[in-house]
Specification:
By secondary structure, the chain is mainly alpha-helical. The chain has one domain. Helix content is 53%, strand content 0%. It contains four helices and no strands. It has helices at residues 9-22, 26-40, 50-61, 77-80. The longest helix has 15 residues, at 26-40. The radius of gyration is 21 Å and the shape is elongated.
Length: 85
C-alpha cells in the first residue's frame, strides 16, 4: 500500500536528516516511525509475549549502567522510613 502525504519543508528536512543519521533510506525511516507510533497506541492485550517483556525490560534498563552502585544492604525497611519517627 502506498500513502502520499505533504510535509512542510522543516519537517521534511528533519526527517531526512534523522534518516541519514540512522543510515537508512528516508522511506524506510518514515515507515519505522509510523510502525512505532501505531505500536504505542495498540490496545493492551493484558499479557506480554516473552519478546515484548524483554523489549520492555531493555527499555527500562537503558541508561542504568550510569547509575551509582549501591549495596543491597542500603535497602532496608528502616532506611526507607528513617525520617518518619
Amino acid at each position: 500500500m502506498t500513502i502520499q502525504i505533504e510535509l512542510n519543508p522543516e519537517v521534511m528536512e528533519r526527517l531526512a536528516a534523522e534518516a541519514e543519521a540512522e543510515g537508512i533510506a528516508l522511506e524506510e525511516y518514515a515507515e519505522r516511525l509510523l510502525r512505532e507510533a501505531i505500536a504505542t497506541h495498540a490496545e493492551p492485550q493484558g499479557q506480554l509475549s516473552v519478546a515484548e517483556l524483554h523489549a520492555m525490560l531493555a527499555g527500562i534498563a537503558e541508561g542504568s549502567e550510569k547509575l551509582p552502585k549501591v549495596p543491597t544492604s542500603a535497602f532496608t525497611r528502616e532506611s526507607f522510613y528513617e525520617d518518619r519517627r
